[in-house]
Amino acid sequence: MGPTPRRTRRWRWASLLGATALAVTAGGALACPAGAAGANVDFATHCIPPAVSGLPPIDGTTTASVSVDNTSPKVGDTVTVTYTVVTPAAGNPTDLALPADIMTPTGKVALGGAQTGSVTVAGPKKNTPVPGKAPFPSFSMTGTFTVTKAGQITLAPGDYNIHTSYILELDTPCTVTNPPAPTSQTVTATDGTPANTRAISLGSASGDPGAAVTVSGTNFTPGASVTLAGRAGAAQTADTATVTANAQGSFSGSLTVNDKTTTGVVAYEGASWSADKGAGPAAYVVNDTTPVPAGSQKLTTTVKAGTLSMSQAGDAVALSAVDFGKGGASTGALRTVTVKDYRGGPAGWSLTGKVTDFTGPGAKIEAGRLSWNPACATKAGSPSTCKAGSAGTVGLSGATLASTPDGTLTGGEFTVDAGLSLDVPAFTPPGAYSGVLTLTLT
Predict the structure, then answer these.
(1) 234 φ/ψ sector (left φ>0, alpha ψ -120 to 50, else beta)
(2) pTM, full prediction
(3) Angle of CA points 226, 227, 228, to nearest 5°
(4) Nearest Cα to Cα of residue 141 among 127, 121, 118, 157
(5) Of 314, 317, 328, which is closest to residue 365 (Cα–Cα)?
(6) How far apart are CA 343 and CA 419, in angstroms?
(7) 134 and 246 share one domain
(8) Which segment of the chain is annotated as a signal peptide (predicted)?
(9) Does residue 291 lie within any of the structural domains?
């Protein structure tokens, strides 16, 4: 005997509730990034299940925390914020088990104190299976904000929303009943170091030994005593002079250059050179006017500056396969990138990468699921030393693969590698998926 119309309707509602059981919250437990963990706080939460579920609003208590990667930032710094829902306001209201990786959480973190506003946070589409009538596991969301004011800035958990992708695409907003929620974290921001905008220019780029060169400067401290000095590579020569900046921070002075090894001229405030209170070096060459002895020939040569370039040992990477129903890490290695910096100047370089979503047979794997573990090697004799980027997510916004710092003389040859790992959801439809990793050298 078939089911009555009422039983059929009830079965359909139960099926839909399987898709909307995340009506309050859900997600896989995620590890917070390294940094300062915030205190767990409780706050009343009002959640509205999707209308199709037929469930009334749910009022409960959420336990959450907010952590940051830097509790003592400076104005201008970017702070990474992690909002973790430790105990959601409710659990799975049905007897139906919910599969893994069907929800994507988003939310807000409220800022207070010296800086007000909110931080938008989002989490990956990841959760463990949830048995019927079981409590939902915790989940984490991350975002960033730029510090604009000095002082104590409080962070409190705010509203959050769960988007579910199981049978139907549904949203379940949960709001703080009496905002703001209790403060979970506090950072103390200080005034950032002002950017050094000091600059100099020379009246000429070369001169005979003993000739004077005019040095003009701007944006120095008004009334400051400024030292003009010759440089031979990274070392200061004995050729110096002193000028005083006017009320506008400008000056014009004369420096007599005798040292034939001079490669540039600098100007700085204080007792010795400091990149924070100086400008230059501005290129300057001392002409070699030494007479050629009888019966001799004077030999000269020129070292020409080159370019900054990179090459790749291939343009395709095949990651390891994963099983449908299990998912997990699909791993591989980045094709080795060779960076050649033959510019011979003071500038370092940065190699960054970003990746698209991985598209496949009617589905996709989000870009945020690709992570890497960079490594960088410096060829012997290179003036610069390569530094590998941090291990972590690549994503749509990108991350640093490797870099070298600015310096008096930079350059060299470097090889960059990285282990790759794509976190594939367990029930991703079978088939081939591909994404594009774009590397940019600046």
Answers:
(1) alpha
(2) 0.46
(3) 120
(4) 121
(5) 328
(6) 29
(7) no
(8) 1-31
(9) no
